[in-house]
Design brief:
heterodimer, A: mainly beta, seven-stranded mixed sheet, 11 strands, globular, B: 115 residues, mainly beta, six-stranded mixed sheet, five-stranded antiparallel sheet, 0% helix
């Protein structure tokens, strides 16, 4: 099925460990986004990529890095995980003038 | 600074009722106003969207009402069902030149429809 695929779906990390969250879309969208969702705080933008080859910081970029590998793939890296990064992470993509399509999320726990 | 304010934070209605969720925005440059529906354990999904040149849009039991002068828009769910129980997010996006057309999100409304 067409859409946004995120891996892994669940992950438990120890404080200080690193990991990369993967995201791929097959809708030929130019823009891609990484959000985190915490109770009562809505969707907060971490990083986004308006087009292949560009990335920009969102509201809460500290502790994260991203790579827009090609038009399809946009990865999010935690270099040294902290308990404050325990969250649900969503990747999304969009055409220039349309709505977002979200992946099913990655539930990350940092202990 | 929150540019899209959504209310209420939570809402409980009986089956068949008409829940209404409201959003207010500040930036007059916004030109696209979508609503997203999120079920537990899933990502948000686009439900319905409106542009400011119309005052109302209906898709099935879901209706967006838009008041440009008041800078407000709302979601109405007709004949609500228990299966409509979810979190609803409003959002807005501007027509700024270039690639900076990110959605600005409300904080969400948790809706419960009792049988």
């Amino acid at each position: 099925n067409a859409g946004v695929t995120q891996t892994p779906k669940f992950q438990v990390l120890k404080t200080g460990q690193s990991m990369t969250l993967q995201c791929a879309q097959d809708m030929n969208h130019n823009s891609m986004y990484w959000y985190r969702q915490d109770p009562g705080m809505g969707l907060r933008l971490i990083y986004y990529s308006a087009s292949e080859g560009t990335t920009d910081k969102g509201e809460v970029p500290n502790g994260y890095n991203v790579s827009r590998l090609n038009k399809r793939e946009f990865s999010l890296r935690l270099e040294s995980a902290a308990p404050s990064q325990t969250s649900v992470y969503f990747c999304a993509s969009s055409p220039e003038f349309g709505g977002y399509t979200f992946g099913s999320g990655t539930r990350l726990t940092v202990v | 600074q929150q540019q899209v304010k959504q209310s209420p934070q939570s809402l409980i209605v009986q089956k068949g009722g008409i829940p209404i969720i409201n959003c207010a925005y500040e930036n007059t440059a916004f030109d696209y106003f979508p609503w997203y529906q999120q079920f537990p354990g899933k990502g948000p999904a686009l439900l319905i969207a409106i542009r400011p040149d119309v005052s109302e849009k209906k898709e099935g039991r879901f209706t967006i009402s838009f008041n440009k002068s008041a800078k407000q828009f709302s979601l109405h769910i007709m004949d609500s069902q228990p299966g409509d129980s979810a979190t609803y997010f409003c959002a807005a996006r501007g027509f700024n030149a270039g690639n900076n057309r990110k959605l600005i999100w409300g904080l969400g409304t948790s809706l419960a429809v009792n049988p």
